[in-house]
Amino acid sequence: MLNYLITWIHLIAVVILIGGLIFSQLVLTPAVRNAASDPTAQEVIRLSGQRFRTIAWASLITLILTGAYQLLNESGSARIETVWGVVLMLKLFLFVIAFGLILIHDFIMDPYAPASKPSLNVPASVPASSRANTVQKTILVLTLAILLVASYLSKT
Ligand code: HEM
To answer: Which residue, of 28, 68, 97, 111, is most buried by count of CB atoms within 10 Å of its CB?
Structure first.
């Protein structure tokens, strides 16, 4: 029973993280693209970005804890030494890259900082928000790749 519950929580964290990234990339960002000079639109992006950052980090911590629990459950099993175990390592490797990019996006680029605080020391010709958006796109692609690998794992 506990195992089902942990997998359920793991999946909820996946849904929240990937769902939020998809909403940001396919709904929010395109919706305000033509309102770059509108301070209200920019404030909505900033506040919703700050809010999603908190939710995304809660999801990441949940994923790590529930993933580690499932990993411990597998530690004695025979399949960990098969191709399944190698594919699991690939999943964790992709996660580490995604995690690093999220750290860079949220704490180094910091695109949701108040306008008065310069968010990144980049040339004026490359808007920080557009670079941060590219990084967020990459994070989305990586998390979708992790999902693909995870669906292979669950069927093997
Ligand atoms: C974006 C990040 C992640 C995504 C999208 C993801 C997705 C999934 C999905 C869809 C499952 C399948 C559940 C099932 O059908 O049994 C799963 C299971 C699992 N996940 Fe994750 N996960 C992520 C992060 C992690 C992390 C960080 C860890 C380890 C610390 C982890 C370890 C595991 C393990 C061990 C299983 C059980 C595999 C199995 O028995 O089939 N996951 N994950």
So the answer is: 111
